[in-house]
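COURSE: Structural Biology Practicum
ASSIGNMENT: Worksheet 4, Part C
STUDENT ID: 0417
INSTRUCTIONS: Below are two proteins. For each, the amino acid sequence is given first, followed by its structure token string. Answer the questions at the end about the second protein only.

PROTEIN I
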Amino acid sequence: MKRNKPEAVQARKRQLLLLAPLALQPKLLLAGLQDKRTYKNASANQQISLPKDHAAHPEFKTEWWYFTGWLEREAPNAGAVGVQITFFRNAPTTDLGNPSRFTPSQLLFAHAAIALPERSGLIHDQIALRAGAGDTLIQQRENHTEFTLRLGSWQLKLNADDTWSANIETPLLALDLLFKPTQTPWLQGAQGFSKKGPKPEQASHYITLPQLNTTGRIRSQGKQWNVRGTTWMDHEWSTAVLDPRASGWDWIGINGSDGSALMAFVIRKKKGPDDLPDNPQTPTLWQHAELRKADGTRRVFKNVVFETSQTWLSPRTGVRYPVAPRLRLDELLFELTPLMNDQELDARSSTGTVYWEGAVEVRQLVKENAKLNNSEKTDTVWGRGYLELTGYWQPLKL
């Protein structure tokens, strides 16, 4: 699928600006080819320690802090709004021996998006900076109780009282939110070691903070609302998380209405020449799903299937996404309904990809007739959260 030309040009300019200083040092780069950066891989032997490990891990290639929430606007008939905030850190494969102060030892990115049902498409913005360039900061206090990540007018902070705060101010949107934990941290997988493939290095360290009590303000399109609701937070860091055969993933993080939390993902295989181009259902390379109840008890599922039910075709990129799948977890079946279909996020100006990241509502299907493909829904919402669909535009590269 061809990119929209103006957007593609701007995205390419942005990437060149980030890496331009490297081109100014060709001799130094050639001399330092033997001293390229080496990375740590996620390991089951690495014990996670909090709050220390809420901070950055620059010895790993890729890292993100990710907040997604359903928030109610405190205004008559205003309704719910979806909010997504993600801060990224990437350690590029550059020569750390290069004496140039412009050599990007760390690249920082951030995305923010607001899903307003009364508007078509997301309101979103993004930023990309080299660490150390301009107003950037990655800082943790010596006692590990506070951590700050800042890119200009975008700031994410872990406070001394274990709350998180996000403050973002751009011409398109503003977010001033406080996230307060109501449950203990959830170390995904085996004590925070989350497998993403069959090889030992295909894994990440993965921390979730579900059921975050969220309050604050959002502004967009000349309007401002006080908001409150529930948010999901993920912090993940890795180096070789994806199998080379992988195209991307389908992932959900759902805050249950009863205090439960559900995380599930499948990593999809790249389509081959015999696959139908318009069929979003592709073979799975890896899968995992786990339910944590409010009392802390956990259940890991053996079978994880995202069944395509309804798709949406983006008028901007021509990409078709399975935006309303059914999720089958062993004997359980859930139906996901998006807050709105158009929640595609074009991040080519920062992380270089396009994906679907959307607020969804989840109902459990309690009675099914497989022959007629007929199910009965529960009357109540099981939970709310976010569905992430990556690799449908192009195979994802981390």
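PROTEIN II
(use this one for the questions)
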Amino acid sequence: MFLISCVSTKPQEETKDYEIVSTEESFPYIDCKMSYPQFLDQSLSKLNSGIKSFAEKEYKMYKDEAKTEFTDPRNPAPRKYSYELTALDVGKAKSMRSVILKTESYTGGAHYSQTLKSFNFDSSTEKEISVTAATGMSLKEISAEARKLLVSQGLDSGMVMEGTGPYEKNFSNFTISEKTVTIYFEPYQVASYADGIRKVTITRK
């Protein structure tokens, strides 16, 4: 027995330029939820397609994996999976829009796994925006500022140094606003799992 619901709800606040598309399903082998934004502006159709494609692909992957394990006759005590994908933040700055998605999943073990995926798009160029373009800073400058801000949060300086080297992959999860860029770090990148997802906000140049 399972329950499926698919809901598309328009935002209640007039300032929002997107709607949230939601899906929820429950099976003997997995409970899963998914909600992600879709922008109303037709010039953002490429961004919408990227978000939708990623979300639905991840969602299906976890469902299929859970079903395979649950129905495997070699597995006498299959675990029940859990999966949830949500929008952690939605950003806006002139022609730029950004979304960061958080995936929280359980496939066994001591705790849930949390991963992030961001989309940063400029409708005027129809291209993705890099963190250096978004901030107006070099990777070395971003690295130095992120390290200072994270250490000021009381995090272990060794983990912070290791996870904030001046490489684009270390700052790939971010959202944009008119004056700032917020960079997010997954558990274990700059801190322990118990410290959760960490973030720093940098003023754009």
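ANSWER KEY EXCERPT:
Q1: Helices lie at 45-70, 131-135, 139-151, 157-163.
Q2: The beta strands are 3-9, 18-26, 30-39, 81-93, 96-106, 113-122, 127-128, 174-176, 180-185, 198-203.
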